[in-house]
Write a structure and sequence with these properties.
Blueprint (H helix, E strand, L loop, with lengths): L1 H33 L8 H8 L4 E5 L2 E9 L4 E8 L5 E5 L14
Antiparallel strand pairs: 1-2, 2-3, 3-4
Keywords: Membrane, Signal
InterPro entries: BamE-like, BamE_dom
Pfam family, one: BamE
Length: about 110
């Protein structure tokens, strides 16, 4: 009976240990890809490069997509702003989001 309950618990523990690595890898990829986003790119081009945004804010004449960068305890958004024409107007990568260093602390 103990073995029957132990296997799901062990599986859950292994999954929890692997999750922080996935977060760090995704964060690092966001940082690398943010550096490749250029003013004038379409939303479709950005989506192909960065994937689906984790957040989206619409204001008069612009839309801002955000992506997470950082560790589980210290996250900073990467923001990509689109003008009324749907093209990238500006980017705001987190200061460390150059892609040269992997985030730590996950």
């Amino acid at each position: 009976m103990l073995t029957k309950n132990f296997v799901p618990l062990l599986t859950l523990a292994a999954a929890l240990l692997l999750m922080p690595g996935c977060t760090a890898q995704e964060s690092f990829q966001n940082a690398e890809n943010c550096a490749k986003v250029e003013v004038g790119m379409s939303q479709e081009q950005v989506r192909r490069l960065m994937g689906a945004p984790t957040g989206e804010d619409a204001a008069a004449g612009s839309t801002t997509w955000s992506y997470l960068f950082g560790s589980a305890t210290d996250t900073q958004p990467i923001r990509i702003q689109f003008g009324a024409d749907g093209k990238v107007a500006s980017t705001a990568c987190a200061p460390q989001a150059s892609g040269s260093e992997r985030p730590t602390g996950n």
